[in-house]
Amino acid sequence: MRVLITGISGFAGSHLADYLLAQNDPTLELVGVSQNGGENAPTDARIRFIVGDLSAPRFTAELFAQISPDRVYHLAAQAFVPISWQDPWATLENNIRAQTNLLHAAAQQKSNARILIVGSNEEYGRVTPADLPIDEDTPLRPDSPYGVSKITQDFLGLQYFLSHQLRIVRMRPFNHIGPRQNERFVAANFAKQIAEIEAGKRAPKLRVGNLAAQRDFSDVRDIVRGYVLALERGNAGDVYNIGSGKPRAVRELVETYQHLARVPFEIEYDAERMRPSDTPISYCDAARFKNATGWAPQFSFHETLRAILDYWRGRVAHNA
Length: 320
Known about the structure:
Blueprint: E1 2-6, H1 11-22, E2 29-34, E3 47-51, H2 57-67, E4 71-74, H3 81-86, H4 88-108, E5 114-118, H5 145-164, E6 167-173, E7 176-177, H6 186-198, E8 205-208, E9 214-215, E10 218-219, H7 220-233, E11 239-242, E12 248-249, H8 250-260, E13 266-269, H9 287-293, H10 301-318
Helix pairs in contact: 1-7, 2-4, 4-5, 6-8, 6-10, 8-10
């Protein structure tokens, strides 16, 4: 079983590699590709790690021919929504070009690999109360360039399934959080601030943005387990939501962290942390995926936030 993970140095990619290796499958050959090393670059000797740019057609075609994978988890992407407002084309080009090259190479080589394409809840964008909970038939109303890029990735996957019969399964994950996530993301950002407050490196004030927004938070370790199940049991050509199915206000992140923190802190609002567009509430109906695969979350919200905070405590102490 030769498995290719693109974006293996990223947040979800590194956790997916950990999960696959933990299964101790003697037939597993794991190959990871990333544009650069990064802080989450794999160090396990069981991983063949390749540095390269998937936006280069020749590199991608040669990579696919050389590896001839049985399964592909395409996780490489620019994943931070605010960046897409600052430089829309960079996100569109990054996310669309790499996947186009990957699928074109697979089609040209008549690959029989099962391929996972990762979209996003941001495809649904500006949902209304009548749309909730969001299922796979909810209209797509993207309100960010990032959302548009993920719709394009999603529908490129569908197109290559229909036109080239590639064995593609598409996922639309809702917000996932956990250790190793970049500090630009809300749960990681709060945890880093608190770890620095505990270490006496900053004043006891937590800088926050919109705390009223409600999101569907899942542990990244549950999400990547879902990705594996998607290729094991999902139907090629289908698209699946994956998430907890429960909305939680960002304020609940703060309140949970207040219980977990070793020192008290105040809350300070920062206008620069507000987004140009912020959907008030978003959460999913993942019944289609659960019925197809038997997936269910295993980590509680509290367990996840504790793991994130412990991770940042370690990072802050290491950088002391």
